[in-house]
Design brief:
CATH superfamily: Tetracycline Repressor, domain 2
Distance between the termini: 28 Å
Number of helices: 5
CATH architecture: Orthogonal Bundle
Order of helices and strands: HHHHH
Largest sheet: none
Length: 135
């Protein structure tokens, strides 16, 4: 498995998802997200709340969001999703990565089970659901 994205300034490029589609892209997204949470927890925390709640008319934030969302939409397009369907679907990998990475950083995955297995199983469940949805 490849290493997570280590440079949050390049998050829009998400090297793990570049040119990857479907399941491989879902795994790349969750691993990149995990790497960002672990390597830059303070910066990550600042990204959790939508800018739309406090600065809805900020064009720079809107542009940054669009750039960061491009690789996510590209992966979801490989499942045949676009528009609102893709936005709803994007919440799955983000939620799983947020949950697991936050628990990992905060020491909440202390059971005698390998957290890596969870980082495989949950994205796999999402990928399976997306594949089944397009069938």
């Amino acid at each position: 498995m490849q290493q997570p994205c280590s440079n949050p300034d390049r998050v829009r490029e998400l090297p793990l998802t570049a040119g990857k589609a479907a399941d491989e892209g879902i795994f790349g997204l969750t691993q990149a997200y995990r790497g960002f949470v672990k390597e830059r927890p303070g910066l990550y925390a600042a990204t959790v709340r939508s800018y739309r709640l406090s600065n809805p008319d900020d064009p720079q934030l809107a542009q940054a969001e669009g750039q960061a969302f491009e690789p996510v939409l590209a992966v979801l397009a490989s499942y045949g999703l676009s528009g609102e369907e893709a936005v709803h679907a994007a919440r799955g990998p983000r939620s799983v990565a947020h949950l697991l990475a936050t628990l990992e950083v905060e020491g909440g995955l202390g059971m005698a089970l390998d957290p890596e297995e969870s980082f495989v199983r949950l994205p796999w469940a999402i990928a399976t659901g997306l594949r089944d949805q397009r069938s």
